[in-house]
Amino acid sequence: MFGKSFAEYVRFQSPVLIAMAIVGLLRLILSIAGLPDTMVRFLSVSAVGFAGIVYYGVRVRPSGFGSYRHLLALVFIQGLVANGVAVIGIGLAVMGLPNIYDVPEFRGPFATPETTPLQHALAHMFVGTTVGALVGWGMSSIVMAIFGRSK
To answer: Helix axis angle, 45-59 relative to 129-147, nearest 10°?
Structure first.
């Protein structure tokens, strides 16, 4: 992608991806274990993702990793991890392990009480990975424009 291998992107962003996977899976495990959603909600994959978006905007250009187009790939890969964990959680809820990832209040801004787990999972797979990547790319690009100066 954009002259870099998938492995190069993952290597550059591995701390963010690892933190995101740990927070997401910990959130899932604690929820399945029975901790109330009011406690588990503070383990936020979105917060880790936002930190990643800011980090990429600040570090990509000065480190020599790339430019604005490389931000898109980084944010997209990050979205795959975040949405992948959510889809796993939704699938487990369908299989009888209720958890925070399929609680109606966390189904997103356009969900209704009739939104099915399949619709919710598909929204993560298609809307979360595309629209989410574009929004994240825009935010990271703004950060890069302001703070991502070259050496």
So the answer is: 40
How far apart CA 53 and CA 77 sit, in angstroms, is 11
Closest alpha carbon to 98 in 18, 49, 48, 40: 40
Average pLDDT for residues 34-53, to the nearest whole number? 93
Distance of CA 41 to the CA centre of its chain: 15
Using a cut of 0.85, tell me whether the model's pTM lies above it.
yes
Q: Give the SS3 label for residue 1.
A: coil
The residue behind tokens 């929004």 is 135
C-alpha to C-alpha distance for 43 and 29, rounded to whole angstroms: 11
* CA pair distance 127, 5, nearest whole angstrom: 25
Question: What is the per-residue DSSP string for 17-42?
Answer: HHHHHHHHHHHHHHHHTT--HHHHTT
Is the Cβ–Cβ distance between 32 and 100 less than 8 Å? no
